[in-house]
Amino acid sequence: MEKRKELLSVQVEDNDEEDSIADRVKLYAQIIEVVDSLPTDRKNVFLLHAVDRLSYAQIADKLNISINTVKTQLRRAYMYLRDKLHLLLLVAFLSLL
Asked: What is the spatial distance between Cα 49 and Cα 56, in angstroms, rounded to a whole number?
C-alpha cells in the first residue's frame, strides 16, 4: 500500500502551473481507480509484479499458485488495463500538446 501512495505523489517544480498539477493528480487517481477495478486475484498478481517488482516465481510462491497462473493473470491484467487506459492516456497526452 505504501508504494501505491508513492505512485500518487506528485513532485512539484516551481514552474509548474496549478492546472497541470491538478490534471496529473486527476490522471493518477483515474489510473489507480482502473487498477482497483481489476478482479482481486488479478490485481494482487499485477501489484506484486508492477509495484513490488517480484518475479513470476516469487509471486507464485507468495500466493501459492503456479507460475502459469501468474503469467495468465498478468496477461489478462495488462490486456484489461490497456483497453481501459488507452483512451484515458490518449486524452491526457493530447492535452499536453
From this structure: 8
Residue 25 near residue 11 (C-beta atoms within 8 A) = no
Quickly count: other Cβ atoms within 10 Å of residue 47's Cβ.
19
Beta-carbon contacts of 95 under 8 Å, excluding residues fewer than 6 positions away, are 23
Its sign, for the CA torsion 39, 70, 57, 84, is: negative
Which residue, 48, 45, 5, is CA-closest to 28?
5
**CB-CB neighbours of 11 under 10 Å:** 7
Task: Output the pLDDT for position 4.
Answer: 56
Task: Quick: pLDDT tens for 43-77.
Answer: 999 999 999 999 999 999 999 999 999 999 999 99
Q: DSSP secondary-structure letter at 16? A: -
Q: How much is the average pLDDT of 20-37? A: 87
CB 65 within 8 A of CB 97: no
